[in-house]
Amino acid sequence: MPATPPSVQFDPAHRLWLLRTPGSAYAVRLDGEDVPRHVYWGPPLTLAQAGSVPDRLRPADSSFESPAGEGGELVTDGFGPQSLLPVFPDGTSKAEWRFAGHVISDDGLVLHLRDRRHPLEVELHYRLHEGSDVIERRLTLRHTGQEGEDPLVLARADSAAWTAPLRAGYRLSHITGAWAGEFQLERVALPIGETVLTSRRGLSSHQAHPWLMIDDGTATEEHGDVWSTALAWSGSWRVTVDHSPTGRLTWTGGFGHEGLSWRLPAGQSRQTPPFLGLYQAGGFGSTSRAWHDHIARHVLPDPDTVRPVVYNSWEATGWAVTETNQKDLAARAAAVGAELFVMDDGWFGARDSDDAGLGDWHVNPIAFPSGLTPLIDEVHRLGMRFGLWVEPEMVNPDSDLYRAHPDWVLHMPHRARTTLRNQLVLNFARPDVVSWAHEWLDALLRDHAIDYLKWDMNRAFTEAGWPDAGPDATRLWFDHVHGVHSVIDRLREDHPHLRVQTCAGGGGRADLGMLARTDEAWVSDNTDAVDRIAIQDGYSQLYPARTMAAWVTDSPNYLTRRALPLRFRFHVAMAGVLGIGGNLLEWSAAELVEATELVTLYKEIRGTVQHGVQYRLGTHAGRTAVQYVSRDGAQTVVLGWQQPRRAAGPVLPVRLLGLDPAAVYRDDDSGGLHHGAVLLQHGLSLDLTTDHASTLIRLSRIP
């Protein structure tokens, strides 16, 4: 039976709207002061049922509690964190709303509010998507005054506020990390008070990530109610979770961090980035799978394309790239089965280290005396596509670009310009910088047969000033992101064949804002396969495997100095979009043969890994396993990895998920037969008896 299509219904008697998705319902109503308030978010309800949901009990009658009601969809007053903080010319910093109507469409709802005295209009947007339980929310803010009137100042403008149902306790799941240690999953009981998740770095960041999950402390991977939200934004952000002593749990979030404001001139409007919410009843695994499906259907620009096996030359040559060594590497890469050859940093300007040349995007004539065309032609002759590393947002002080345009970087008058990695940040809020970036990138793509760009960003913002913008200087925190997005959007529109990877020193900017215009994310500069197991697990909580670039590199690893078997390194990388980043010129003949066999095997399973349904099977006694089931159920892939464990510990079979209990499955390698019911209830034994052993099992459902 087909799923019920999303819909919006209105109950005028209760001034209540019900948004229905295939597996959930969300209700909001207007209170007596025309303030939109949350009513319900959970399993499906009818309109009549939603209308019968009682109002929340107010806290004890106290002059020390907020006079405002609970559960505001856009919090503008009270003692908790505010979603919208306008500052009007007369000093007023509180909005009072008059409801101005609503619009119901095929894909959602818009609520129109006007301030009762000041020239501010706000639209609350709720968007639904076919086949998805995700509810996408954002604001449009409009200064309705006449030209010449004073601008409004917005000290805070979040995209949405969310409210969890009343529960006896709450648990927060979120991501922490650092460079080379991104996407570390944290699950912690929420304390009473405010918990702030934020990035003040100008990008979504390695240290935190703009999504969270809420449950009552009892949810597991496959059971329990989970409410989750994710902000589609690629710059600084803040989400504030408020767990009050009265038992209320709300959170509000949007772009920017504390201390930033922006002016809204008369006659202008501004949109906030989408803040997406999802309710699922099947635990964290069901929540992740719902996000994966939504991102594939409604976020990625080209979700159905099979991602190629990549070879990247960075770890092989560093900045010492030449036409000769790149051709030599390309020949080895093609021989092991790579389909896309990417030349990384070092091909341009006076770029033989990270000290100089960044910003001078012309081909280095010493390394490439005849330009890039001979290398590109050779890569194509070998049957591979060609990709190139770029870092358009950055500049070295030792560069022709900086000497010509020192005012183009983020800076403050009379303050030092801090370099990180010997580079400064170009201000993509400036139209001239955006035009320059698009011009040279467009010319690069027009003049060369380039199929793929790795768009990198290798430092955070400091001295984030824009002297020429005067009182609008803080807009750079927002407009820089819009500038970056606009350049990528234009390049993809003008070069439809182009594919783009988002990178920021690893996973510093892997978010829904970038994935809406790129094909995959480089999730960490740490390619150590042991460390990547946890990194990839955290990434998979929200993002699908088809967006997760993962490389096999040399052993010992350049960063951790850990030595690992080649097979183990491949099996970890095969859990996403497989790539190779080692120095193939130094691999032994045996290693090259094994690599070729494993690349061939990956190509046989990647349709299931990249486009199938993922199940995390957990970690026990140092053994971690993950499973993928093809959309038609015909193929199942299980990857398992063994980390050091106690010799006397139990070794349990892995219970699989998502199979047909009535079906029989054949092991494609051993020929053994397995009943689906047994795999689901008893499990599958994995032959992982030594440290850093790994396995890949392919099961085919017998028709």
Share of helix, binned: 10-25%
Question: Over the alpha carbons, how many angstroms does the gyration radius reach?
Answer: 27 Å
Main sheet: strands, sense, barrel: 10 strands, antiparallel
Assigned CATH architecture of the largest domain: Alpha-Beta Barrel
- Multimer state: single chain
- Number of helical stretches of at least 4 residues: 13
Number of strands: 37
> Strand portion, in percent?
25-35%
CATH class of the largest domain: Alpha Beta
**How many structural domains?**
3
Give your account of this protein's structure:
Keywords: Glycosidase, Hydrolase. It comes from Streptosporangium brasiliense. Residues 36-264 form the Glycosyl hydrolase family 36 N-terminal domain. It catalyses: Hydrolysis of terminal, non-reducing alpha-D-galactose residues in alpha-D-galactosides, including galactose oligosaccharides, galactomannans and galactolipids. This protein starts with 6 loop residues before the first strand and ends with a strand. α4 packs parallel to α5 (373-381), α7 (431-447) packs parallel to α8 (476-494) and α10 runs parallel beside α11. The chain folds into three domains: 7-55 and 67-174 and 184-189 and 203-286, Distorted Sandwich (Beta-galactosidase, Chain A, domain 5), CATH 2.70.98; 310-611, Alpha-Beta Barrel (TIM Barrel), CATH 3.20.20; 616-701, Sandwich (Immunoglobulin-like). Helix content is 20%, strand content 29%. By secondary structure, the protein is of the alpha+beta class.
